């Protein structure tokens, strides 16, 4: 190859990288504008809603909270207490003890006065069999609680067992260690009951980070900004993702994922599609994609809804090791889901889902870390070849950095003007400072975890969930 | 002193793209600085406002309680009450304070009844709050109208019925919903007359709210729901079915029977459930005769009906479904058989072919 050909190739690569970055930034701007509109509309709609009527009504639809637990002995009793303290009237709780090796079951039996009952599971979805069986409390105060002890099959399998057992019209799938606010169920069920000509198949809510928050008796008492910079950075990241991203996708009816930490599903559709996929580590995303695909193929009007209220609080990883393991899993989950449902991508038959949501996830979520790494390698080669035009490089590096800081600040504004959870003096300044630091504190590790996720997906097929060691919200 | 001249000269000589990138960066940095400063100010004001609101709330609460308890038995206003009204009147034009007053008043309204409730209503008029609510009805923005109607409902202002009822067919469902709630909250079953001409769907959420509102009244004398059961609006039919169940409308059984052949499956299923509740024996016989023509959901629902209304003569029918492939039907059939012929049921363990059938029998046995 002569020098001119190399130069042409380099030029093309320049434009490709530039085009990709430009489109990513434009998409962020568009999504944040749409998110803002959707959040405002939501706040307007809910400014005169009488939630108490639904709360006390026996006519309200039944909801089953399904919470899988694996080796949660440390906090399971407290966490179940939190789940049982919801204000919604027509709900029950199924704790699926997924073959825990610790004494979770014994602790639950003791704390809630459980006794074994005869129960036959209608296995509409195949799952691992029961181990010790099904337990109900002898104490009427805990009549809403059911504990199912089964052989270990993973989170998806445990959720499927819950789907088989639930008798409710709707199921709320949540992580047992999440803190659900008392009014979470009636707020989350509203989208299902509000629509008249469209079937809402699932609804998700914003997930907030509970590290350092004060929790007493399963209730959120005080919201604090944690001292740990990694956790702080994740708070900012969650604000951006939920308030400036997912709300927009909700408006466009293009949501592909509802966080596994808390989501409500139309049980009939969840069962019709075969429940959670036990062969993926991204079961929360996969089931939404499958449910959407099912509805598109049935040609029925549907929606996946999203609400911005801070209803579910969870513990975020506070060490880089656990954080990387979590993001590695998220990456593999995304790859697996997109690959499994590749038929949808760029397929006009699937409407917005196929022509907008799927391509966006593929290009700006799935491919982003790979393109970023290629970009970095390409830059390194240019440095070695002394082909870097430093004036361009520096100006665009500064521009992208400044944009990312501004984008985070807009997310902070979005939070302040809506739910204003971080009220303490000085927190605003800390969050702004964090916006400047977060690209260095968090992003490199997200990139690393995503690349590791790609590597593990292709070369380490045996890797499954990975460790997610939690300290427990009760101790925060 | 730093000499910026070479830097500026260099910038001017740079290619246009670089100039644009630096220019944009400068604009964004300025925005960051301004937004950061404004964030600080805004947060300060939010905190201050929160404190002030809490303080106002306490003040108004005390005043309003004094207003309520200083009234005499003859219903005439005394000097204390008049001065409290005057004090509140001054604050009403200020939006933030008005909001607090309304919220305090509403909380009090929920806690009192009878004369005290009338006193609050009188205060609502005397302080001029009513005018602001009525002004809202003239607003072009839908959420302001809805808020206005909601407020009039909460303070039981039935005198403006004509002004509110015109929103019953408003293009926004939220406004329609608030109007419907206004009508039912203040005019009870009479208020349901909007259902006669309702062309838009009534959401499940709206239905629950209406039913909850109706159940709050002592007088549970319901009007004739037949026209709504025959409505062309499916959501009105579903709502009427709920009314039939809650208010035990035995007299509409014939109309309910007609709904068993309604084109909408959801309506047919709900009709079976309501007829089960109302002990519709005729419906049972009709459905039994047409069992094979029913959808699976209707069949399950019918077995639910049979569980409640079963008679020994149903035994041969039930026997046919003891080992049905559907879990719910099989479970219900076994339970029904057990209730009408325990001997035959006990003998089933010999005829059960699969392990699951045996375990199902074991389960029913334990019930």
In short:
The complex is a heterodimer of chains A (476) and B (367). Chain A is an alpha/beta fold. Chain A contains 15 helices and 12 strands.
Descriptive report:
The complex is a heterodimer of chains A (476) and B (367). In chain A, 53% of the residues lie in helices and 16% in strands. Chain A has helices spanning 3-46, 51-56, 76-84, 104-112, 155-165, 184-194, 229-251, 267-272, 283-298, 320-340, 351-366, 368-384, 390-418, 427-441, 443-459; strands spanning 63-69, 91-98, 114-117, 130-137, 145-150, 170-174, 179-180, 199-209, 214-216, 219-222, 262-266, 302-314. In chain A, strand 4 and strand 5 (145-150) form a beta hairpin. Chain A is globular and about 80 Å long. The mean pLDDT of chain A is 92. Among the domains of chain B are: 224-309; 314-367, no CATH class. Chain B contains 21 helices and no strands. Chain B is extended and about 105 Å long. Chain B starts with a helix and ends with a helix. The model of chain B has no long low-confidence stretch (mean pLDDT 89). Chain B: InterPro entries: ARM-like (IPR011989), ARM-type_fold (IPR016024). Chain B: It comes from Snuella lapsa. Chain B: The chain crosses the membrane at residues 20-39. Chain B: Keywords: Membrane, Transmembrane, Transmembrane helix. Chain B: This is HEAT repeat domain-containing protein.
């Amino acid at each position: 190859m002569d020098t001119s050909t190399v130069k042409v190739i380099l030029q093309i690569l320049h434009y490709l990288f530039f085009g990709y970055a430009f489109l990513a930034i434009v998409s962020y701007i568009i999504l944040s504008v749409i998110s803002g509109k959707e959040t405002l509309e939501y706040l307007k709609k809910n400014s005169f809603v009488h939630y108490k009527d639904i709360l006390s009504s026996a006519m309200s639809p039944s909801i089953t909270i399904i919470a899988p637990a694996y080796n949660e002995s440390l906090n399971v009793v407290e966490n179940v207490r939190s789940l049982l303290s919801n204000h919604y009237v027509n709900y029950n709780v199924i704790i699926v003890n997924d073959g825990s090796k610790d004494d979770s079951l014994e602790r639950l039996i003791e704390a809630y006065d459980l006794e074994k009952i005869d129960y036959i599971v209608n296995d509409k979805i195949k799952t691992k069999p029961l181990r010790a069986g099904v337990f109900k409390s002898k104490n009427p105060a805990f009549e809403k609680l059911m504990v199912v002890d089964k052989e270990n099959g993973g989170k998806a399998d445990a959720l499927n067992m819950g789907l088989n057992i639930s008798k409710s019209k709707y199921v709320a799938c949540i992580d047992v260690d999440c803190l659900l606010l008392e009014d979470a169920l009636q707020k989350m069920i509203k989208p299902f009951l509000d629509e008249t000509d469209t079937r809402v198949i699932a609804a998700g809510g914003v997930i907030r980070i509970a590290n350092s928050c004060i929790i007493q008796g399963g209730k959120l008492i005080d919201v604090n900004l944690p001292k740990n910079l990694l956790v702080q950075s994740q708070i900012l990241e969650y604000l951006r993702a939920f308030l400036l991203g997912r709300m927009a996708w909700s408006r466009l009816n293009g949501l592909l994922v509802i966080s596994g930490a808390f989501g409500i599903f139309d049980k009939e559709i969840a069962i019709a599609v075969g429940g959670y996929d036990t062969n993926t580590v991204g079961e929360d995303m996969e089931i939404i994609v499958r449910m959407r695909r099912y509805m598109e193929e049935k040609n029925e009007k549907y929606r996946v809804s999203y609400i911005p209220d801070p209803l579910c609080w969870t513990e975020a990883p506070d060490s880089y090791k656990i954080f990387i393991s979590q993001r590695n899993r998220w990456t593999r989950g995304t790859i697996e889901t997109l690959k499994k449902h590749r038929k949808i991508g760029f397929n006009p038959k699937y409407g917005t889902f196929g022509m907008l949501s799927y391509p966006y996830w593929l290009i700006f979520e799935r491919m982003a870390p790979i393109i970023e790494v290629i970009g970095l390698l390409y830059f390194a080669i240019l440095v070695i070849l002394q082909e870097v035009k430093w004036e361009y490089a520096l100006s665009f590096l500064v521009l992208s950095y400044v944009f990312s800081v501004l984008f985070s600040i807009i997310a902070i504004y979005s939070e302040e003007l809506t739910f204003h959870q971080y009220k303490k003096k000085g927190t605003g300044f800390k969050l702004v400072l964090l916006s400047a630091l977060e690209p260095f504190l968090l992003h490199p590790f997200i990139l690393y975890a995503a690349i590791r996720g790609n590597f593990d997906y292709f070369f380490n097929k045996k890797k499954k969930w990975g460790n997610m060691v939690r300290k427990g919200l009760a101790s925060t | 002193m730093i000499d910026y001249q070479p830097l500026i000269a260099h910038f001017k000589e740079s290619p246009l793209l670089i100039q644009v990138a630096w220019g944009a960066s400068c604009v964004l940095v300025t925005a960051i600085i301004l937004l950061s400063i404004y964030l600080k100010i805004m947060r300060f004001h939010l905190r201050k406002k929160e404190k002030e609101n809490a303080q106002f709330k306490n003040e108004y609460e005390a005043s309003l309680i004094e207003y309520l308890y200083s009234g005499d038995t003859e219903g005439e206003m005394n000097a204390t009450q008049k001065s409290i009204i005057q004090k509140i009147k001054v604050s009403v034009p200020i939006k933030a304070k008005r909001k607090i007053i309304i919220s305090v008043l509403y909380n009090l309204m929920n806690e009192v009844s009878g004369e005290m409730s009338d006193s609050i209503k009188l205060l609502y008029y005397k302080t001029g709050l009513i005018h602001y609510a009525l002004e809202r009805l003239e607003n072009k923005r839908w959420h302001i109208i809805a808020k206005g109607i909601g407020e009039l409902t909460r303070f039981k202002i039935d005198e403006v019925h004509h002004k509110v009822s015109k929103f019953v067919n408003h293009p926004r469902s939220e406004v329609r919903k608030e109007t419907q709630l206004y009508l039912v909250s203040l005019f009870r079953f009479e208020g349901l007359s909007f259902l006669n001409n309702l062309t838009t769907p009534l959401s499940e959420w709206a239905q629950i709210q209406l039913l909850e509102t109706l159940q709050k009244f002592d007088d549970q004398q319901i009007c004739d729901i037949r026209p709504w059961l025959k409505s062309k609006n499916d959501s009105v039919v579903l709502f009427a079915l709920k009314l039939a169940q809650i208010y035990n409308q035995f007299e509409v059984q014939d109309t309910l029977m007609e709904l068993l052949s309604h084109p909408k499956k959801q309506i047919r299923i709900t009709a079976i459930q309501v007829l089960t509740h109302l002990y519709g024996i005729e419906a049972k016989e009709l459905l039994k005769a047409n069992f094979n023509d029913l959808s699976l959901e209707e069949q399950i629902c019918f077995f639910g009906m049979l569980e409640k209304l079963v008679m020994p003569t149903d035994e041969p029918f039930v026997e046919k479904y003891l080992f049905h492939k559907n879990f719910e039907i099989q479970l219900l059939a076994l339970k029904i058989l057990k209730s009408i012929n325990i001997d035959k049921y006990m003998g089933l363990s010999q005829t059960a072919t699969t392990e699951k059938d045996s375990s199902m029998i074991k389960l029913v046995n334990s019930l």
